[in-house]
Each structure stands twice: as C-alpha cells, then as structure tokens.
Amino acid sequence: MHIENEVKYDFSDVLIKPKRSYYTSRKEVDLEREFKFKWSEKIWKGVPVAASNMDTVGTIGSANVLSKHNTLTCLHKFHTSEDLQQIPAAVKKNVAITIGVAEGIQKLYEIGEQINDFNFICIDVANGYTEQFSDFIRQVRSEFKEMIIIAGNVCTPEMTEQLILSGADIVKVGIGGGSACITRKVAGVGIPQLSAVIDCSDAAHGIGGMVMSDGGCTCSGDISKAFGANADFVMLGGLLAGHDENSRKVTENENTGEKTVEFYGMASSTALDKYYSNDKGKEYKASEGKLVSIPYKGALEDTLLDLLGGLRSTCTYIGAKKIKDISKCTTFVCVNNQLNNIYK
Ligand code: 5GP
To answer: Which residues contact 319 (CB under 8 A, 6 or more apart)?
Structure first.
C-alpha cells in the first residue's frame, strides 16, 4: 500500500486570479484554435469544446447545432453506420464516430469510403487501464492512419503517455468526476479533475499528444479552469444535456409546470438495460452511473452561446487573446469557498 500526501484539486477548489488585460470586449477573443496532431495527418481548426458521447448528449441533432459554431460532437456509439451516413458533410468534419472495444472496429469498416469525411474517431471505455485497450488503439491507428483518434478514459500521467504511444492523438482524461457518475462511490476510484488535467496534460504535451478534460464541468467557469489547467479540449455531458436536440421525452409537472427530462450515465442500470439486456456478462457489471431528472433547457444553441460567452469573459479577465493563451495567463488560487450560495 502507498499513500500520496500531495493534495489534488477539483474545479471547485480553485479560482482563476484576474490579471491586467488589454481586451475590453469579449468579441476580441478568438476561441478557435488550429490543431496539428501527433499521429493523424489532418489539421483541425475549431473551438475545442466537445459534446460527450452519451446518448442523452452526443446525438446527431446536437452535432448539427454545435457544428455551426465549430465545436465538436462525439456521437454516442449506438448510432448505426446508416445513421452516420445521413450527416451533412459540413457537420461530419466536426464529429467523432465513437466505438468501444467490445463492439470492435467493424463499424468503422461499415462506413466505407465516407469515413474520410469524418475527422475524428473516439475510442471510449470506462476503464482505459487495460492492455487490451492499448492494443485496440494500436489496431485502429494502424488501420486508420489519417484519422484523429481520441481515446480514454484515464486520469494519470503514465497511462496518458501509454495511450498516446499506442496511437491516440488526444487522450480523454477523467475518471469519476462526471455528473451522472458514481464510480467514486461504487469503486472508490478517481482523481480530482483539475489536478488530473494538470498532470496528464504535462505528460501528453511532453510527447506531442493532447488531452481532453472529460467530466466535472458544472458551469462555464469550470470549462475555463480546465483550459487553465492546460486541457487542449474540454468535453461536456450534463451541461449540454436536456435540450430539444438530445432529449427524448419532456415531462411537465402538473402542479408547478416545471419541465424536466431524464439524464443518465452510460454505465447506469438505465443504459445497461437499454443496450446490454442480452449481454451474457451482465451479472458481473455493477452500475456506475445514475439516472437523474434535470431541467428541460430548450434550444441547445442558447446554452452553447452562454457557455462560450463565459469562456470569452475569462479571457478578458486574465488578458488572454486566444483560447490557447488561457493556460499561460492562468494563476489558480486555492479557496475554501468558491461561490456565494445564499440565493440558489
Ligand atoms: P459531465 O460533463 O456530465 O460532468 O460528465 C460527462 C462524462 O461523464 C462523460 O463524458 C463520461 O466520461 C462520464 N460518464 C458518463 N456516463 C457515466 C457513467 O455512467 N459512469 C461513469 N463513471 N462515468 C460516466
């Protein structure tokens, strides 16, 4: 047994210190960044914020909206190859096709030539620490050399390096911090997200890779903190859920008129029952996600613009002209109390 005594931080443990700034208007801030990747030969330019590959977030409807603002959507993996072929070409370039290890590489072959219209493949597993996962990334990299590969999730620097060396361009960092996640409760496993991003991005950047901070953003300020911690991309689940473009059923409370929708983790019993009811290994799977009812939020575009507005605001407070400059301009201060919650 070992114990590490160094404190690890979450987004709520810090604030970003304001600094002298030349930028008075949010309009002056450039949120787009051009990326060249370690393995893929593609260049991608866009706003490095991504919708999570959850089936209540990363839908084709979400992609159509998010792509208009050059943000990314990791589609959930239950879309069929026929579904993927229906996506307009202009949207495909801002979309990642998601696969898991269990389903294998077959779906990518089924898409055929059209795969080249998509820029990204997202290889997503709950636990990125298995040898089998690294081998699978190696296989996908050797078959799809030009695609930008996002792979995860892990939350430690050594494994970030291993996934990059196996062929990932971008490593998804985050275990246990998601809004619909109960891994920390069920398994007692995880690393607080801000520190995970600081440590993993340092490891990734050292060998030419990138990281996507995944999970734990509760507001636009947290997205800025993830960029401040040196994330290249930030993935959002709950913040982008509950909209017209990704909600199946809106429920209205008869008494209060309050509208809500269901949101659940992809490892919750709700998702397991939906997609894996015939799975032979089901009795060994513990649910590591929850089902919650969240407010219905209307049009996704309004939320996205609010979140991006928050990011612009951070930039003007700290003197960052571009999203890429946020980490250079960030000094975090550790806090005992982050928000005034007197009025909820
Ligand atoms: P959020 O932005 O909602 O805080 O976090 C979204 C992330 O939570 C997802 O991108 C994914 O990595 C993670 N996640 C989604 N569903 C589950 C689940 O059922 N269990 C766990 N442990 N993590 C989940």
So the answer is: 19, 20, 21, 22, 23, 329
